[in-house]
Amino acid sequence: MKRILHDADVNRAALDGKTIGIIGYGIQGRAQALNLRDSGCNVVVGGRAQGKGIAAAKGEGFKAYEIEEAVRRSDVVFVLTPDDVQKTVLSEAVTPYMREHATIGFACGYAVRFLDLELPRGADVVMVSPKGPGRTLRERFVAGSGLPALVGVAQDLTGVARDTAVAYAGAIGSGRVGIIESSFAEEAETDLFGEQAVLCGGIPRLMAAGFDLLVSKGYSPEAAYIECIWEAKAIVDLIYAGGIENMYANISPTARYGGLTRGGRVIDADAEKKMSEVLDEIRNGTFAVELSSARRAKADISPTLRETGRRLLGEFGG
Questions:
Q1: In this predicted structure, what is the pLDDT of residue 315?
Q2: I want to staple 182 with a disulfide (CB 3.0 to 4.6 A). Which of 143, 150, 159, 171 is the partner?
Q3: Is the pLDDT of residue 313 over 70?
Q4: Distance (Å, rounded) from C-alpha 258 to C-alpha 202?
């Protein structure tokens, strides 16, 4: 079991006197910049010359510059741009302008693990990955809580890369709930697997399949929607509050017995085999190659996928 760090374990001095450059002022960049500033850090923002980010950051009181200038001014640089442009941003606008012995950071391990980035040789390279969207990161910080984060070190030239990463995680609020030491590879592979096999792939497909089956057997769409989709939040909230055992302890005896005796018939050995295949495609790079190809071709599979949502949610106010 890995040790979970909290605020008491964070060496705040690791960021003392340092300027943090946030490259990219999108959903994640904005949230992290605001949280860092509220934690007392000196933050500057970097964006494209003609982009909306610089103006938005200035509007919220930040000093904001083109990326190259923001990097020049920073001791710690976090690249929070989309994965598919990070290689270009890094090579053209970040690496050539970094200070000696600076730190470069990423919010996930994907680009370093799969995109063959050429990392700056004279810099510490770290990852601080809050496990949730930027909006949630900001909302929970303001409410006095936070999101857990995975931290990792890919390159430690100064001997203090870990302290820098943990201090950064604490400053965005993750020390309030838990900071877990990890690696770029572990974060990238488990994140993709969770998205594809469970959270954004498996669960919605299971919901849709259950809904379709009930309706095909003559049950009303309203009842099918409530039972297979709407009630999911109540179950997830119980798991979130205290784990799967807590969920089973707080549902009816009938639901508990039925779930324990029938769940394995739906998610059986064949399903687990397919999940393993999905993980293999992630680990061996097949998915990354496929994703890069789809992005280059500007493939848009969203209309087909959105149709499922429209069909399920149409008259239910989704």
A1: 47
A2: 150
A3: no
A4: 20
Of 188, 156, 151, nearest to 6 by C-alpha is 151
DSSP H/E element including 19: strand 19-23
Q: Based on the number of CB atoms within 10 Å of its own CB, is 68 exposed (0-12), middle (13-18) or buried (19 or more)?
A: middle
**Tokens coding 90:** 């890094």
Beta strand residue intervals within 24-173, DSSP E: 42-47, 63-66, 76-79, 103-106, 124-130, 149-155
Bridge partner residues of 133 (DSSP): none
- Side-chain-side CA neighbours of 78 within 13 Å: the count stands at 29
Please check the confidence at residue 267 and state whether its pLDDT lies above 90: yes
Compute the mean pLDDT over every residue in the chain, rounded to the nearest whole number.
92
Cα R_g (the chain), whole angstroms: 22
Q: What pTM was estimated for this model as a whole?
A: 0.87
Q: Please give the Cα distance from 23 to 29 (Å, whole number).
A: 7
User: Residue 198: which of 280, 147, 271 has the closest Cα?
Assistant: 271
Gap between the Cα atoms of 222 and 286, Å rounded: 40
Q: What is the strand order of the sheet 19-23 is part of?
A: 4-5, 179-181, 149-155, 124-130, 103-106, 76-79, 19-23, 42-47, 63-66
What's phi and psi for 23, nearest 5 deg?
Answer: -100, 110
Stated as kind and residue range, the H or E segment containing 200 is none
**10 Å Cβ neighbour count for 128?**
26
Phi/psi for 175 (5° steps) reads -65, -15
**Whether the predicted pLDDT of 306 surpasses 70:** no
Residues 192, 224: Cα–Cα separation, whole Å: 30
Give the tens place of pLDDT for each residue, 36-60.
Answer: 999 999 999 999 988 889 999 999 9
